[in-house]
Amino acid sequence: MLILVTGGAASGKSAHAERLLCECALSSRLYLATMQPFGAAAQARIARHRALREGKGFETVECPLGLQNLSLSQRYDGILLEDLGNLLANERFAPEGAGDAAFGSILAGIAHLQDCCETLVVVTDEIFSDGLDYPPETARYIRDLAALNRALAVRAEAVYESVCGILLLLKGEKNA
Q: Which of 13, 16, 29, 49 is catalytic?
């Protein structure tokens, strides 16, 4: 099963995604962290997310790039991918990333993850409603994230949006 959870910054989407995965995956749980710890703000965010997961039975693997090549030691009841926006930025802009092939690389990686678990929960970002003009490279990133979100929403059994801490079901059935 694929579940997509979207929302704006600090909307509660990560906490909701963890809860959804814990409800679906009763034992083996993997948290795939994509954020690279560049700077104090990123490190603080990583520490906050670790604290949120504490005691929930997650194994954590750092995987900022190359999901399609990730080798896992077992099949999991559930995998939580946190988050698609970071993964896309890493793949598009890191020297060792996929560059212009990031979209296909990420979709292949997500298909690979689905083969490694019963339930995959993907956290993504809602960054599309500010109406601002951006430099071409940033605009391309935004278009790529929108395309990834659409592709995953089509595949997903359930799609949720977290708005001000409230989880809204956009597709699927409650407790999908």
A: 49
